Amino acid sequence: MTPTLAQHHEQPPNAASAPALPPDAGTRARDWAEIQERMLVPLYEAVYERLEVHTGTRVLGLGCGSGLALLLAASRGARVTGVDADEERLALARERLVVEGKRDDRSAEPAATGTLLPVDRMAEAAAAPGRSPYDLITAFQPIGSTADDVEELAPTLGTAIPLAEHGTPVVLAGWGPPERCATDAVLRVAGRLTGAPRTGGRSPAHRDDLEEVAARAGLEPDGSGRVACPFGYADTESAVRGLLSTGVFDGAIGATDRRQVEKEISEALRPHLRPDGTVWMENVFRYLIARTP
What we know:
The chain is of the alpha/beta class.
């Protein structure tokens, strides 16, 4: 994996005494797009290969972020739709994919086209005249990153499932066993700083987590797989920025402050620091393929 280089900024002389403020939403979204989102590319590609995503496949990406997974599907010829609650990430996705019907002929040929929407407009757009049912629904944001991510995903799945025909594959993703995920110890910093180690950061992984989510959504499991997704960063600074962009540490920042969280993450990353200054953490992610009723 090619590391993403992060620009270093010199701090002003009085930086040590200045209050530690969280980055604005635009900065965090760009850190996600430029540093963190690519870490799950092996997962995206494995799923698309297994499900034979090709020209004409209609893909609905839930929690599409800044659109990298959609771009990879579009490169296979798929027609893609992405929804996300984060407007800043959607704005970056629009820089990657030209929204259908909004092509600017004066600009260079885009890499792909697609439909990108706030999550609360998903059903409205799907009901537009001429729309066909989706052939694949993906939820690549790993379950178990935060304590409430399952509850956040449930209503989105509930809206998405009726937009596909019977038997359509729905892909859910989650972290692998903690002992096979080097990043697990780093994510648990969030729980330690909030005083809630089992709920403030990554939740302990269980073998049937994805199956339970599928069952709650009325889906029928139909296969699963594991994919190695190492997290590689150019240096500790870019690793900290990338990890903070996930949102896992928001509670910890609220309970302490940003500088304290950055310090704790940096210390947790030390065992994964290589002699050349890069950071490398081996991880395994699991995906479940389930079918719509």
